[in-house]
Amino acid sequence: MFKTIIAAAATQSGIDLNTGQLAQFSLYLELLVHANEKLNLTAIDAPAEIAVKHFVDSLTVYDAKYFPAGALVCDVGTGAGFPGLPLKIFRPDLEVLLLDATAKKLAFLDRLIEALQLPGVGTCHIRAEDAGRSPRWRERCDVVVARAVAPFKVLCEYCLPLVKIGGVFAAMRARRAREESAEAKGAARLLGARAEEIKEARLPGRADARAIIYLRKVKPTPPSYPRKAGRPAKDPLP
Ligand code: SAH
Description:
- By secondary structure, the chain is an alpha/beta fold.
- Helices cover 41% and strands 21% of the residues.
- The protein is built from 10 helices and 7 strands.
- A 7-stranded mixed beta sheet has the order 3-2-1-4-5-7-6, with helices on both faces.
- Strand 1, helix 4 and strand 2 form a beta-alpha-beta unit.
- Helix 1 crosses helix 3, helix 2 packs across helix 3 and helix 3 packs across helix 4.
- The radius of gyration is 17 Å and the shape is globular.
- The N and C termini lie far apart (50 Å).
């Protein structure tokens, strides 16, 4: 039953999935619905809605030109895996790091990754600010993605330090994307990035506007950023 639901959602959105990917999304859906009863991982719980509002929505961040073969992609504040895990299923050659500050969500993802038998995807229990200050992660990623984690300017401070020079930060935003991007221009520049593109995204059967903001990292982030955990949200950059 889950396979039919996924297949319908993908077809409606013009996304091509092979049998293996269909099976993986279907297992993801099954385990998510099951785990959600106990863990409250998502507010959306009808399988058909999860297929569209989480799986298909996650894939709207995808654009072949920003995701080179074998790229290291970090999903900051991944929650139940969105958008990082659908991206990994869709493009298995990507190396995907699912980062979150909440351990119970990552424990679910670890079980899921094992069940999906997907190599090249892992979880990391850390705050984005701490990851950005750690030599292990700082300026290492080709692409950083994020959906629904923090106000855009705050998100820039969480994510841009992780992006390597020449790489991209792709932020999934709602209807205020253009204003947010304009408001964060100074912060983005300070962190070493400039706006590259804002792409409208639509979900089948839904009228609400959404957009992906792509920022390009053009120079190193100064060593004083990101500030200590908690500061970016409490005192956003000007
Ligand atoms: N991206 C997912 C989850 C959004 S909920 C989705 O779109 O469905 C926001 C998630 O961000 C939560 O799981 C929370 O633990 C995580 N988060 C918030 N602030 C964070 C930070 N500073 N560092 C790491 N994770 C953070």
